[in-house]
Specification:
The protein is an alpha/beta fold and 153 residues long. The protein contains 6 helices and 4 strands; from the N terminus they run βαβαβαβααα. A 4-stranded parallel β-sheet has the order 3-2-1-4, with helices on one face.
Length: 153
Amino acid sequence: MAREMRIWVYAVMHNEAAMLPYWLRHYAPLADRLVIFDDHSTDLGMELARGYGAEVRPYPGAGLDDQEFVDFAAATYPEARGAADWCLWVDADEFIYHPDLRGQLARLAAAGVPVKPDREKAWRDFAGCRVNYDTVLLALARLTLAPEAPWSS
């Protein structure tokens, strides 16, 4: 019997107590694991996140540029190796939605979205490099309920 797909959701947040209840209600039922990197929050958001069962970790610093953030995100992925099928990085105001997201992610793989069959190689290839997501995002856009919009990277 095939096992259920496992989804982990990661986010970096700073003083998001006002938005966090919506974010948690949206992602908690979907995710098998929620990991929030706290960027020196001074509100009660992280206590709220812990109350929902999210793991809260300190963010290593403020002002990371895009490449530094990619390197930071890549450094977190080895913990998911062999444990998660999909890792989503989202902001507090980003809500990925599809009425059957788990099924949709499985259909993306079946539709030929470039998900590498050799997961170990996929992890090594991602670490420390900039990734071009155009192919994946365009395929996702075609398979979701959202209207198509031009995409540029």
